[in-house]
Amino acid sequence: MKRFLPLFKRITHYASPITVVLLAFSLSSLTYSLLITSAFAEEKTASMEEIVVTATRTEKELASAPGSVSVVTKEDIEKRNIKTVDDALNTTAGIYQRRGKGIMDRMTSLSLRGIPDDTRTLFLLDGIALNDAYSGGVSYDLLSVEDVEKIEVVKGPFSSLYGGYAMGGVVSIITKMPEKREFVFKTGYGSSFDRGDAMDDLRKFYLSYGDKFKDKLSLFVSYGYKATNGYPTDFNVQSSKPTAGITGWTQTTDNQGNTRYLIGDKGDNRWWDDQITLKAGYDFTKETKMNLSYMRNSYEYNYDEPHTYLKNAAGNEVWSYGSVKESSFLSGSGGSLRNTYNIGFETAFSSVKMKLSLGLMDRGKAWSVTRGTTVATTRAGGPGTLTETPSQSYNADIQFTVPVFDRHILTFGSTFRHGWADSQENGLTNWKDETSKTTLSYQAKGKDKTYALFVQDEIMILKNLTAYIGFRQDWWETYNGYVNQVGTAGYPKEYDSRNASAFSPKAAIVYKPFEKTTLRTSIGKAFRPPTIYELYRTWTASSGTTYAGNPDLKPETTISWDAGIEQGLWRGAKVKATYFENYLKDLIYSKTVSSTLQEKINAGKAESKGVELEAEQRFDKWLRLFANYTYTDAKINKNEAKPETVGKRLTQVPERMFNIGGDFENGPFSASLIGRYVGKRYSNDENKDTVNNVYTSYDPYFTADAKLSYKLTKNVIASFSVDNIFDRDYWGYSKAPGRSWFGEITLRF
């Protein structure tokens, strides 16, 4: 190890000397801990070890994986009150889920180990990348959570196997494929307890059918639908005090402590979506298989009638005063339509295994409406803006796995990704009707592509000691960049093509000195190229803040290492501890230029260090208890473009998180109770947004959710769940959902 780390430093030109010291210290400490705890490792368990694929691209027992891996199964999903795919991950150590409005939120994200945003984590759906070509983000509503077989979360840099976006880790979603005939029908209804501060009138419907014919042909089809009348999530907060004679307003502050005045809300945030999944698989032989899938997801949102809290001396509603107009009470609408197509094929030639995956993600329709800001825009109609952001991405991946002699397993292959996006803004004569489109006012578009070669050698040094060495070379190019601010001098602008390459090495060691003890350590380099959105898109939100792209952005890179121990104790119990460090270079983030302008830049350097502690106790099948804690110290180390941010925490990274809970099953009853704590986050790069419990703040919070299910018959299950049991009132930019209930009936044949 002492020889390897300096070599890795020379290869990457980045690793800090302290990394070597800390790694050596960590390994020696873990070894000492091992000797202390090994006495608990004598008892054998009867349960079979979970098999995972993502960490190595090959099947591997969970305890032997060369990384910290968490698994969420379909059984976990069924026991808990989970309504979306990202909800299934919000109790996983090291993961921060941002979904401030509940299921209505369209600005969701997941981040791993302090690496901000889901654009730096690779999401796979049956082996194909889900990160879209426009922003690199992920639509978690692409499929119904009922379609999920399991989710594998691999934390740490995995660019050596998966390329860009895999800086924080990889989240692999594996969908169901039937082994026998099964019909599932679900329907449910829920609402807030006090009809006003959570998702009112939440409706859910799900239907699926799957079968396997003659052990060869598998078919699966499903349809899911969710809708809610919502609740007020966005508010009208002004800097100017209502004029004399007007009542009903409340003095408050913004998240930086500046005096503000709450004068109304923008109405209930209504939302609906649906999903269609079609899958077919054919087993030609035991080794040769083909799978085809099609997924369609659409959603729309809008806002009900807004509310003014203002009244004049006569008791009549007031919708304007001074410079405040009726339009400030209004919010727009939007929606999206995505179609995803996947083909998977695998076979074997003697001892050589081959896998081929092809995918197309087509976001053919993505639109949002912004109301105008003049007196001409009112509740009845008037001018507005329509923004459309269609995009497409094509993915191809081929890999080969070859055993070499008796101690090596060689995995190698190639990937290709091509994407394009086109963002356009047009005027609307009526902001309440997106078909009233007029002339083009703004356009930004571009294309990118990435080609890569990768190889990994799994080396069995000893029966209980395995090393992994991997390398990947990526070639990235962006081209056809174009921005046109119609009517503005100097536009349109066309940008020259740009390219870059990235070398991503990785090494890992897994040592199992005892049956129930696993020691792991790994080090790797990862990268992420800028997205089309970050390069070319500039837009202004309804709040008046402009978010500017930057066509000169460079790819960002990170050097990461971790070391951990997993120890089985008495029957069904295990503990896990992992220490990690991430050193980021050229981090792309939003620089706050003024109160109304943020622009994308490459920060000099940043780091994210922390620890994950996990404990689990299983009592056979009837009871599982768990707890985990994550501490993350994430800050900017160097930023010549804005020195005042040095030493400040990275935005949207909580310092502390913990989860605690349990799942129970006995006879016809099953239940779950889970509590979550998320610490303070900052949205301002100077960390000036310190005031909590106000509109746009990101408050620390603790919430608890519960679900109780009862099997009425062999085929019928009834369940009742409560979210936010303690009715915790907090803000995640928007007002977070209060306490709500949901009842559901499931028929399974």
Report on the architecture of this protein.
This protein is mainly beta. The protein has one domain (4-268, 279-748): Maltoporin, Chain A, CATH 2.40.170. The protein contains five helices and 44 strands. The strands form seven sheets. It has a 25-stranded antiparallel β-sheet that branches. A five-stranded mixed β-sheet has the order 3-8-9-6-7. Strands 13, 14, 15 and 18 form a four-stranded antiparallel β-sheet that branches. The N and C termini lie far apart (55 Å).
* Rg on CA atoms, Å: 26 Å
Q: Low-confidence segments, ≥5 residues, pLDDT <50?
A: 1-47
Structural class: mainly beta
CATH topology: Maltoporin, Chain A
Architecture (CATH level 2) name:
Beta Barrel
CATH hierarchy, class: Mainly Beta
For the sheet with most strands, the description reads:
25 strands, antiparallel
> N-to-C terminal Cα separation, in Å?
55 Å
CATH superfamily: TonB-dependent receptor, beta-barrel domain
Large-scale geometry: globular
Q: What count of domains describes the coordinates?
A: 1
Average pLDDT, rounded to a whole number, is 89
Number of strands: 44
Helix content: under 10%
